[in-house]
Amino acid sequence: GSRERRRCLYLHTGRACCQMVEVLLAVLILVCSSVSCGSAGGYTGLPALGGIYYYQYGGAYSGFSGADGERAQQLDQRFYLLKLPIARAAMVVGGCLLVFPCVLISVSVLQVPWHFSAWLLIECTLYIVIAVGTVPALYYFLHSLLSVYNSSVCKEREQLYQSKGYQGFWCSLHGAEIAVGLLGCMAAMAYLLSAGLAVRDYRTVHEQKQKPLLL
């Protein structure tokens, strides 16, 4: 019937497509946040290999042994614990941003906006609030990470690795963390676009209800 047809047609609308993009962005934010968190592994002493230490990202590193290896492991663990709350907060936010558009898609497929058109105005308001809230959230995320990278733990860790000739342990934002910032900005723009589309759909629903004979 016409009701089932409307449900299927919604998934082909601009608002639904924008919400699906929001779902994809939220998933990517979750993934990049988990990469930023990393692992608590650090260096692990393996007596069977003659004191060789294996780094968490793979590969045998024989440059560390004894006191240096233990210090490297301690610094890795402390560095991980410093970043853990920030990464967890980002993952929680990413999870909420994932659930939100999924709920809105379900609500629209069930035709709630058709029977209660004011829902679209509520949806518009929520989108604007989230879009505006994304800005300070991104600032907090990046500012907190930079504070960790400017800490004495990170500086000592960087110097220890460089003294052994290892690269890639710099005290600066890496690709996944920069990606979270960019994805957050893209998500904020998508939310603003969805807010505009919600207002447009509200007007459309209101006009169609005024002309029931044309449906």
UniProtKB/TrEMBL annotation:
<feature type="transmembrane region" description="Helical">
    <location>
        <begin position="21"/>
        <end position="43"/>
    </location>
</feature>
<dbReference type="InterPro" id="IPR008253">
    <property type="entry name" value="Marvel"/>
</dbReference>
<keyword id="KW-0812">Transmembrane</keyword>
<feature type="domain" description="MARVEL">
    <location>
        <begin position="10"/>
        <end position="203"/>
    </location>
</feature>
<keyword id="KW-0472">Membrane</keyword>
<feature type="transmembrane region" description="Helical">
    <location>
        <begin position="119"/>
        <end position="142"/>
    </location>
</feature>
<feature type="transmembrane region" description="Helical">
    <location>
        <begin position="178"/>
        <end position="199"/>
    </location>
</feature>
<feature type="transmembrane region" description="Helical">
    <location>
        <begin position="86"/>
        <end position="107"/>
    </location>
</feature>
<protein>
    <submittedName>
        <fullName>MALD3 protein</fullName>
    </submittedName>
</protein>
<keyword id="KW-1133">Transmembrane helix</keyword>
<dbReference type="InterPro" id="IPR053077">
    <property type="entry name" value="MARVEL_domain_protein_3"/>
</dbReference>
<dbReference type="GO" id="GO:0016020">
    <property type="term" value="C:membrane"/>
</dbReference>
